[in-house]
Design brief:
With 320 residues, the chain is an alpha+beta fold. The chain has one domain (11-311): Oxidoreductase, molybdopterin-binding domain (Sulfite Oxidase, Chain A, domain 2, Alpha-Beta Complex), CATH 3.90.420.10. Helices cover 20% and strands 21% of the residues. Strands 1, 4, 5, 8, 9, 10, 12 and 13 form an 8-stranded mixed sheet that branches. The radius of gyration is 19 Å and the shape is globular. It binds ligand MTE and molybdenum atom (MO). Ligand MTE binds at residues 17, 83-87, 139, 141, 176, 195, 224-225, 237-238, 240-243. Residues 17, 83-87, 139, 141, 176, 195, 224-225, 237-238, 240-243 line the site of the ligand Nc1nc2c(c(=O)[nH]1)N[C@H]1C(S)=C(S)[C@@H](COP(=O)(O)O)O[C@H]1N2.
Length: 320
Amino acid sequence: MLIKRPSDIKASEITPEGLYLNRREFIRASSGAAVGVAFAGLGAASLAAPAPAFAQEPLGDVKKGPFGTDEKLTPYDDVTTYNNFYEFGTDKSDPSRYAGRLQTKPWTVKIDGLCDKPADYHLEDLLKGQALEERIYRLRCVEAWSMVIPWVGFPLANVINRAQPTSQAKFVAFTTLYRPSQMPGQRYPALDWPYVEGLRMDEALHPLTILAVGLYGKTLPNQDGAPIRLVVPWKYGFKSIKSIVRISFVDRQPPTAWNKENSHEYGFYSNVNPEVDHPRWSQARERRIGEFFRRKTLMFNGYGDQVAKLYEGMDLRKYY
Ligand SMILES: Nc1nc2c(c(=O)[nH]1)N[C@H]1C(S)=C(S)[C@@H](COP(=O)(O)O)O[C@H]1N2
Ligand SMILES: [Mo]
């Protein structure tokens, strides 16, 4: 289901990330057709098969976690059909249409770099002993829309502490799966694949930062980043990297997918900041998906009490 763009939102506000594609030859070569149409041109009938979108498995024992908001939840249908996941195409409806083919079992996560206990974990082993919590967090896209999602996950800090990073480890780098056979968007240079992201060590260890394995009480739908993704609620959505296969401890600020694409528009920090506009549109307001009127965007997406101290003394115009 494609969510219609309300007529009062300019195209430049709703798909800025996608605009980059316009300057790429491959889009022009397909005579302005959406990437989704280009997939059909691949001739793979299976690609057109709808994703088994609602076949998620229950997650069992999930306790209520801290930091919840009591705002109205964004409906499950919107959370699972209005997505950004460029590995499956640049349209908001592409992930729910094309992500069903992604095989998420078995799944391995490599933990490596500057740590005493590097390991390749089967997902089940990574999850062993983790108490799953529900965290109702806002997700604020850089495109000035937002959702309220009941995530299920556990603090990233648990995984970091188990790996025992050395004192040289200053940042944590994350990598998404690269598997063009099941991620058709990766057959196009929409981004420099694989998608990568990073956090400073104190951001990664912050109790708000979680690895999510589910939403609405069930395992993640593929389009939302199955089987495991990051959720960093005070940063723009693109920091919350999906379908993670590698977590590395590094001594320097790692490259990040959107920063590599356009460093002028997407910085490393990417904190939700109504006072620092994106070069092409305002960040002062946002549209909650499912609502008509825009609401004010809150500093750090409303999590300032918890995270503002991480950035004390930093010029957030420079470190955007
Ligand atoms: N690997 C990967 N992770 C990604 C993206 C992507 O294209 N690829 N898009 C990001 C962006 S721009 C947003 S807004 C969120 C959207 O998450 P959701 O679709 O679960 O709402 O995922 C982020 N994580
Ligand atoms: Mo985004």
